[in-house]
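note to self: the first set is below, dont mix up w the second
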Amino acid sequence: MMMQRLGLVLAAFFLAVSLPACTRAQDVAAGQAYFRANCSLCHDDSAAKANFQGPPLFGVVGRKAGSANYDYSAVMKAAGAAGKVWTKDELDTFLADPQKAVPGTQMPVKIDDAKARKDVVAYLASLTGGDTAQGTAETHQPATGLDWTLDAPGVHHRVDVQDLPQPFATPSAGNGPGYQSPPTGALPKVPDGFTVSVFAEGLDGPRLLRTAPNGDLYVVETGRGRISVFHNNSGQLSSERQTLAEGLDRPFGIAFPPGQPQVMYVANIGAIVRFAWPDVGQPQKIADLPPGGGHTTRDIVFSPDGKTLYASVGSADNVAEGMAKEPAGGVAAWEATHGMGASWDGQEGRADMLAFDADGSHMRTFATGIRNCVGLGIRPGSDELFCATNERDGLGDNLVPDYFTRVQAGQFFGWPWYYLGNHQDPRHAGERADLAGKVSMPDVLFGSHSAPLSFAFYVPPAGADHAFPAEYTGDAFVALHGSWNREHRTGSKVVRVHFENGRPVGDYEDFMTGLVVDDHTVNGRPVGVAVGPDGALYVSDDAAGRIYRIAPN
């Protein structure tokens, strides 16, 4: 009897000890799953401590705020200097409301659910240990045509699908660029016969640039939620920035409906809103956009007849690894209402090109399988929609090439099951054999991980004082933001895509280069491209906080 009692006591003791440990393990696992689905696009959680779009989080618990090797905002650096340390409680408070915890932080996303926050904090607290050993991994040389040391204005590049390596031919790198301010007087390189200058600086992460029908130049500072304008004065842009709107929710895209010069549409992360002049006031919501994080840029553009508003919505994560194998009700029923190749679960409405009537009604799917179309535009003189797309990560240095392409109704570009034709993503092998042979091929492939963002077709205004030579007319200029998922850097430049008879010829040419310092450091990251009323090309740089102006001598 005594032995039975002793056994019961010991069992109760070990159960009491093991249950909290089991619960902690479950919290960590749940936090890791949440992190992978919602945070891993912007933050590295590995011991490599790489800079992605946000700072590395390995070892964050116990670390002073703003102290990792990352270009933090001034307010985060100040918080660290004042003694703020990331305890688990501090992280929970910050994730509940970043702007309340550290006013002015660049962190745009909060976690409202208390259980999810607890799990994420538990996972972050588990990220401890030594740094990744240096110098032991195999060194992989850059692929031909992607060596940034050979970039220069006038250099041509061509990426052909038949030259692609197999998945995982190289490790998946975490090599986010560190930013270093350009030396005094240093400027990017442009072709002979052109001059580049700093048009504006001191901006807060300027991203999309868009020229209004009246020649005004609009700049979107997404992280700050602000849209500003540089006014057109008789064919020349004023150097004075005027704030148009503030307090917006991660704005990016801007569109001007044809024939309505007093109206502007703006794409926030979760909705399209409308401004009208002269009484700007509060914007009017026109349409909701699919919710969620991951890829958060939303670009918009009107069809030339003004009847259709297109919107690009990127995927919720890298490659939909958490998506169920089939949607409720089956694939056929889903595609009947969402389009061929449309994804489901948390990816519903994501990785899609959407279309609306001009008033924001009648939302429908225009094209699918486009992982992250950041920039949209209509080719001048046509009704053809073009898009600049960031393809998936994690398959090695030279997969998958990003692209610039025309997009037509009903097309499917492969994500997440395929890429560039019938290349199956090994993370979804065998899942959608029915889509084989139905994947559209893009027009122009860029070096993998170049990160094309915005673009502009070059058509100078009539009588522009600084128009480019005629051979540039009709070509596209694309901003390549630059890589993080390559061992050797690529991108961080503006390239020219040549057109003949209304079609891209397949290659691209360096136009503005010189921003890469080495494989780990850059002096700038181009985002927005626009043609000004003077005919000059304007390029935003969200790392340097600048807008560059490029014009013929």
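second set (the one i keep forgetting abt)
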Amino acid sequence: MSNKIQNTSLILLIIYLVVGIYLSLNTGISHDEYHEQLNWEINIKAIKNFYETGTYKDLLEYKDRYHGIGFNFLSQPFQYLIKDLLLSYLDVNEYGSILISKHLVIFTLFFISGLFFYKICLIFFNNKNFALISLFLFLLYPYFLGHSLINPKDIPFLSFWIISTFITCKILKKLYKEETVPIKYLVYLSISTSFLISIRVVGFLILLQFLIFIITFCEIKNKSFLNLLKNNIKNLIILFFNLAFFTYLLNPIFWHDPREVVNSLIWMSKYQQDVSTLTLGEYMKALNLPASYYFIWLFFKLPILIILGFFLFPLIEKKLLKNNLNKILIYSLIFTCLIILLLFILLDVAIYNEIRHLMFLIPLIFLISLNNLYMWSRKLFYFSGVLFIIFFVIENISINPYQYTWMNSFSKFYKINKNFEVDYWGISNKNLYNKIVKHSSKNNFNKNNCVYGDLYSNVFLEKQNFKCFKMYSELDAAKLRPYYVMKNHRNLKRSNPKDCKLISSEVYKYSFSDQTINVGSAWYCD
């Protein structure tokens, strides 16, 4: 790689980081952020009680006690350092500044995970051009970028999965070369995996991925699995001792009884959130999903380039050398994706909001597909890679801040509003509340009257001297007019407010598409 390309790439990465931080601080607040903050506050109170009394009754009685708080251990110090700065910079109240400050930490962690993704690509092929193209496809993929601006659960989980996968690849490379595995790799893997589990207990699946990597290595290298275990028994003890220690430390709910690990796995696999997700025109319930749900959403969420690359595998399989490290890694990643997907289907795991709960598998699919494309034709890889990078940039600009709802061009053959879930986290709230503020200043609205909206109406309107904030669900009981209504999120499916005037609709369009996608509206009821 020439110095010019290297320097240009570094400048572009810096620009990406700066723009991403700006966007993360200037988007709406997602529905789950209230719950994430509440989980942290209940857990931190429980930690204090456990330290003082040896028990934490409130946590044990809390419905979401098994929701991990691992990422909060990293984010909360930064949130409280910058919340006052954001309070003066943004038109939100103090609670809002605490929530939005987490956006910066989420995006920064995602950016760091991209660098680990780059390093994994270098393990596949020691070619910086391949790794850079892959990195920018990863970072600019609208679905990832959109979630990285707001998602306090799935993006940290995805990020630590990538980091753990990188360390696993490094360990496998040492085994492949028959070199000693440094103890620091084992400690790093145990810490990264512990954070993964502390964010979401399904992080235990990374151990399945580790096992798949080892079995695949043994099969392709004609090694004895049992002999490999015997020869590395010391390493395994170090790994699992540290893993158990850090996992226990980062999950307060385990402190009173380690058997809570099993309880948390059972509870979270059937989490009682029986919401429906609009999927190809059909509302599919989280607690009763057909197997087709996963494949429909993967088909419409993955970039067409990645879908094409994945199915190229049978054509490039013969190009993989018999004992090549690349072959071991590719087979391991393919088996990981297929087995985890199969487990979700067979165990009838409750998921909703398209495939965000399986988002951690998509970087693995990227690695498989990009490897296949590169081996099939380097010219095709570079040409299509650059083309899709440009396309992603245009898409991100066109649909900002709704990149997290992004779907590929196949979806354009359908009426998206009628067939798929859009803005299921309700981040249109910020723009719609801004429209209400502008309208109220022009119409001398009495700010003692109410605004009916979501959880965050006070966050965005308190600084503007509004006094009364109610949920949209309370609208039927509204008597005192005039009032404002902010309608988005799942309320979008309900009928419009009666005898009210539409003052603004929040819409967006994909690039190269005339289809208007509606994600919310603001109403004035006098």
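remember for set 2: The CA atoms of residues 373 and 380 lie 7 Å apart.
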